[in-house]
Amino acid sequence: MSAHHSAHHSTDRSRRRTVLGALTAACALVLGATGCAATTSSAAAEPSRQATPHSSAAPGRTAPAVPEPAALAGARVNVGEGATVGVGMPISVTFPRPVPPAQRAAVEHWLTVGTEPAVSGAWSWVKDRNLLDGQRVDYRPPAYWKPGTRVTLRVGTHAVRHFAVGRSLTATVDVRRHTMTVTEDGRPVTRVPVTAGRPGLDTWNGTMVVMDKQPKVYMDSRTVGLGDAYHGYYAWAVHVTTSGTYVHQNPNADTYAGRSNVTHGCVGLATDGTAERFYRRVIPGDVIRVTGSLETVEAGNGYGDWNLTWSQWLAHSASKA
Known about the structure:
Elements: H1 4-16, E1 46-47, E2 76-77, E3 84-85, E4 91-94, H2 101-110, E5 111-116, E6 122-125, E7 136-140, E8 150-155, E9 159-165, E10 169-174, E11 179-184, E12 187-193, E13 206-209, E14 212-220, E15 231-239, E16 246-249, H3 253-256, E17 267-269, H4 274-281, E18 287-291, H5 310-315
Parallel strand pairs: 3-9, 10-18, 16-17
Antiparallel strand pairs: 1-2, 2-4, 4-7, 5-8, 6-7, 8-9, 10-11, 11-12, 13-18, 14-15, 15-16
């Protein structure tokens, strides 16, 4: 089975193909096995904390000459203080209300990023799946972060975040060969059989990033217009899109992994310990690449930022930095 979100993303593309009806309202994410359901922004995490001095803070840009935008006071940051993330994690900042186009360059200038060692990067305004235009801006380098990089984000005068980039992990799902190859620090460490989205409910193609993970997620197909196709708890759920794509344990994988694609859009792993081992290996920010499928996931459907070229990324920057 797949999460509500997976079904949600599959339903989106099915609606475009006039195969499925319109989606119903998204459900709320709860602990459970392979499930769906968050209606929160993929970028919104914990509220910003008050900025405090930190001895290891990386240098940022000097304060801009433009006044500090009021929008920064209510900003939320996706990475927690002191976190260790995978090499694909963008910095994502969301706002309670859309930032007008005329103020976006000032917002970018007051969102300062310092790194050790030095890494170039840029802000880009992303249309989040669950938010309005102007409510989300992300920061990423031209290529994935290098392992060991230490990052400091300053949200104007309001907040600070320090986080580190851990080891590099990329899981590549080949939906035609029904396999997932996990690579750590450039070295393939394992290849496992999988089952992906069935025809018409295909798994998103392209690069995604682990948003979060839960030991169990509850999924209910009725919330996304798929009738009684599935409902219940699914285990070892690694969340990779806001629309509900997960890599998770799926009993159907015991029969079909490595042979055919039978899910509602998620990537299913067998119950023999394969799903749990993958779950325990990954952290938020790790990269999940899907090849051989159809439509590419959008930048704002989770952290699909890496599906844009660097020139495309800069085209959505208000300051063109």
